[in-house]
Write a structure and sequence with these properties.
Helix content is 47%, strand content 11%. The chain has ten helices and eleven strands. The protein has helices at 12-19, 21-67, 94-105, 124-136, 152-157, 183-192, 200-224, 230-241, 253-258, 269-276; strands at 70-75, 79-80, 87-88, 113-118, 141-145, 148-149, 162-165, 170-171, 177-178, 181-182, 263-264. β2 (79-80) and β3 (87-88) form a beta hairpin. α6 crosses α7. It starts with 11 loop residues before the first helix and ends in a 34-residue tail after the last helix.
Length: 310
């Protein structure tokens, strides 16, 4: 008996399996294509991330050489950081304070520090640690705010000898938040309702909120005494921390100057170049689209006028 009978003499199951092989092959090819596409996506993310990191390092190195300073960038964006490009919102946390404190620690005491700051705020403890380290640094501290430094970011900016803001950049109040509620509003609840009508939980939160307000105001006043008289420092600290505005109230350049802060708008071009290297997390389409325009020629670069020309 032959070991391999003719095809038409094979069992029915074998012939059926042979006929159904194409769907299996298609499924196998589809799986292979999926994994290849995923590997290609990962490779593009790794290469893109490496390119951005190199670009950031080059800009920071250039600024350090030009200004003879120690440049630190504390920038929070919604970047595509997961393998599938899911945006993750960032804020000031303990890891940030550890990294910034480490950079300050390794900076010679008399060397200037330039901190490029772009953040919505974050953990009070982390922001206070950074601010204290900047206050204690002997060399000049300059904080650059190209777009915004809110809440804890403002608290850090207050520690600078000079704040350089874009003309449209903003700072914000530093009033503490208890969970998702403003501490000032929680305290105000005690004056709006009788104690018997307030839950135990809210009474505890009100106690914590009052302590938080005192602690933040006291710390901000200590930071500001590096640059202004104690009485003025207490006044500004009270304005910024008492909760007279909503937490997202914007303090523009003129408002910051009226508070007595030393603010300049002489923003180096390299700071904007650095911000371009921190792209926002990509979505289905860009929310803002522009067309490049031709820059006007600087007067110093214009050719000399011909005799008799207007």
């Amino acid at each position: 008996m032959d070991a391999n009978p003719p095809l038409d003499e094979r069992p029915h199951e074998a012939r059926s399996e042979s006929k159904g092989g194409w769907p299996g092959r298609v499924a196998h090819l589809a799986r292979a294509a999926f994994w290849l596409a995923l590997l290609a996506l990962l490779a593009l993310q790794v290469l893109g991330s490496g390119r951005l990191e190199r670009g950031r390092a080059e800009v920071l190195s250039r600024v350090q050489q030009e200004r003879k300073s120690r440049v630190i960038a504390l920038i929070h964006r919604q970047e595509s950081v997961s393998v599938l490009g899911v945006p993750v919102s960032n804020h000031i946390d303990i890891e940030d304070s550890e990294a910034v404190l480490r950079a300050i620690r390794y900076t010679p005491p008399d060397q200037p520090i330039d901190l490029i700051l772009h953040t919505p705020g974050g953990l009070v403890l982390a922001a206070e640690q950074i601010a204290k380290a900047l206050v204690d640094h002997k060399g000049k501290v300059t904080v650059f705010v190209p777009h915004y430094a809110m809440s804890g970011g403002t608290l850090i900016a207050l520690a600078a000898d000079e704040i350089v803001m874009d003309r449209n950049a903003v700072l914000g109040p530093v009033d503490p938040q208890i969970g998702d509620m403003p501490a000032a509003s929680v305290v105000k609840l005690l004056a709006l309702k009788p104690t018997a009508a307030i839950s135990d939980e809210m009474l505890v939160l009100a106690d914590v909120a009052q302590k938080a307000r005192v602690q933040v105001a006291s710390f901000v006043a200590q930071v500001l005494t590096k640059h202004m008289p104690e009485k003025k420092a207490i006044e500004v600290a009270t304005v910024l921390s008492e909760g007279r505005w909503t937490h997202d109230f914007m303090i523009a350049v003129e408002g910051a100057r009226q508070l007595g802060l030393k603010v300049s708008t002489d923003m180096p071009r390299a700071v904007y170049e650095l911000m371009d290297l921190y792209p926002q997390g990509s979505g289905s389409r860009p929310s803002v689209t522009t067309v490049p325009i031709k820059r006007a020629v600087d007067d110093r670069q214009r050719p000399a006028a011909l005799p008799g020309a207007p």
